[in-house]
Design brief:
Elements lengths: L1 E5 L3 E5 L3 H13 L5 E6 L3 E6 L5 H9 L14 E6 L6 H8 L3 H10 L2 E6 L6 E4 L14 E4 L3 E5 L2 E4 L4 E3 L2 E5 L20 E6 L2
Parallel strand pairs: 5-13
Antiparallel strand pairs: 1-2, 2-4, 3-4, 6-7, 6-13, 7-10, 8-11, 9-10, 9-12
Helix pairs in contact: 3-4
Length: about 200
């Protein structure tokens, strides 16, 4: 773990991998550090945004002393159910990549426990990690110029839901009518770091 101060407004913690990110966030939730206004996880870093006037060096020292949480653990939080119509263009390709049937892919995706590890790419896009390694698949060889809003997809170890129409190279499993990003909602993002997600098949 490497802890760096970011001017006078933040502290950046670099760790080995995503499991270490999730464990660090869990540790900071269990033992909050004074002066930290927001914890922003990414794939291999955790940014701590500080309350104005907080000493970054003091926060960095406190982070180094935070008791570690078991790797991969995250404090229990909100659970969101996302209804999905599994008719994605890449469902058959994912079945071939995983050695499952298309129905087997759907069964695995809906049975897995998913947790939003971090957000990025577009407002409201949550990178969700699951507990079924059979669903780890590569991105498409060629990205699409337009993926529709609500598309439910896989890439690498992650599942995601496109909050708006955009280019994308993930493998499309299906679609949801759930509003993933809504500026009239507080907070606007449905899929936030720490939120647990359960996908539910609908017709």
């Amino acid at each position: 773990m490497r802890v760096l101060t970011c001017a006078d407004s933040g502290v950046l913690v670099e760790v080995a991998d995503l499991s270490a990110v999730i464990a660090l966030v869990a540790a900071l939730e269990a033992a909050p550090v004074e002066g930290v206004a927001d914890v922003v996880p990414a794939a291999r870093t955790v940014l701590l945004r500080l309350v104005p006037g907080t000493d970054p060096a003091a926060v960095a020292d406190a982070v180094r002393r935070v008791p570690p949480a078991p790797a991969g653990e995250r404090a229990g939080g909100e659970t969101v159910v996302v209804p999905v119509v599994y008719d994605g263009e890449d469902l058959a390709d994912v079945a071939a990549l995983t050695g499952l049937t298309p129905r087997g892919v759907v069964a695995a995706h809906t049975a897995a426990t998913w947790t939003v590890a971090f957000c990025g790419f577009a407002p409201g896009f949550g990178y969700m990690v699951g507990d079924d390694p059979r669903l780890h698949v590569p991105r498409r060889a060629e990205a699409r110029t337009r993926v529709p809003v609500g598309a439910v997809a896989l890439a690498g170890e992650f599942s995601g839901v496109y909050p708006r129409a955009s280019p994308g190279g993930w493998q499309l499993l299906g679609r949801t009518a759930e509003r993933i990003w809504d500026l009239d909602r507080d907070p606007p993002g449905l899929l936030r770091p720490g939120v647990r997600v359960r996908f539910e098949e609908v017709s």
